[in-house]
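User: These chains co-purify. Model them together.
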Amino acid sequence: MRNIDYTLYLVTDRELMSCPTVEESVERAVGGGASVVQLREKSCSSREFYELAVRVKRITAALNVPLIINDRIDICLAADADGVHLGQKDIPCAAARKILGGDKIIGVSAALPEEARRAELDGADYLGVGAVFSTSTKSDTRPVTPEIIRQIRAAVSIPFVAIGGINKGNISQLCGLGINGAAVVSAVVAQKDIEAAAREMRAAAEKL
Amino acid sequence: MRNIDYTLYLVTDRELMSCPTVEESVERAVGGGASVVQLREKSCSSREFYELAVRVKRITAALNVPLIINDRIDICLAADADGVHLGQKDIPCAAARKILGGDKIIGVSAALPEEARRAELDGADYLGVGAVFSTSTKSDTRPVTPEIIRQIRAAVSIPFVAIGGINKGNISQLCGLGINGAAVVSAVVAQKDIEAAAREMRAAAEKL
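Assistant: Joint model of the two components:
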């Protein structure tokens, strides 16, 4: 599972999505070209999160894309997802690696070169770097400038995706910075035609 | 770790506690006779929960009582706590047992004989049965009558603690029902002298 295509990294958002179920938004986004799916749930119970993860895993496994669980290592293990994504306020990467062993993917959010280096040393497989643009889906984010992205690229050898407010109007500003993919939330799941939006963002992300 | 003394089962509550830190309330309650500690955190970040669990584990290990983590199997593993307690809205017991293996304690909340039987079949080590009295710390609880407690006692062979609004004024009503211990929250941590309150509740719990 370690040879991941990070080109278009979909992050789910139940509140923003344009269709009735998370499963449907994932299926459509992957149909349009999303190459990784991160399931992010911030307010449901552990049981609901677990049951949703089991259902989404069936879809991503059938479509042959990895499923990453936001924050909850236990949900990842229980649903046999492919990995977890850890923010700076989640369980530290080194502790997560001990629990998960070498087989699961671990991603870490980084907004600074030192956070990126730390994550790589602690066993992260990839980074989520952002917020690269201002965004409504995360309120606690600092702006990550092209200069900082270049510093992060120089600081680590693991792949990273840019995240935060990326849409079809601004994605081209991220070209040439050494980014391995674009993480998208509302630019895909909030659009009326999720599959078409994913197709368009995928084409743009391939030019990064 | 499986031969647990469930007599006085302390559940932490940051909002109700009378002293400044969770660590201090745990230390005092165990000093007064709490024989198991459950760390329950509902609103902090995973990182804070993890770091607190690591600190509390040091205390409970030194005092030789088991530490149980509410809901979060990943925090249990990362902090090397002794087990988890799972509500009916948390990850199902059978899935938790698969992740945790045989060495960690798993407790499950049960308010009905069928929930209790299911939990035992799914590998639970003990049950938390309640709410046995009305309580302000849980809003989604159904009343569990002495008759239901007797039915649960008849339905399973694993130990169980009663939980929900138990205090020095009502604990004697639980005598003779086959309960293995009393789980307490505000009757200990919200009292001015936590150690004295624990001592008093411990003496009463020994008569169950």
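Helices of chain B lie at 22-32, 46-63, 73-78, 93-100, 113-121, 146-155, 186-189, 194-205.
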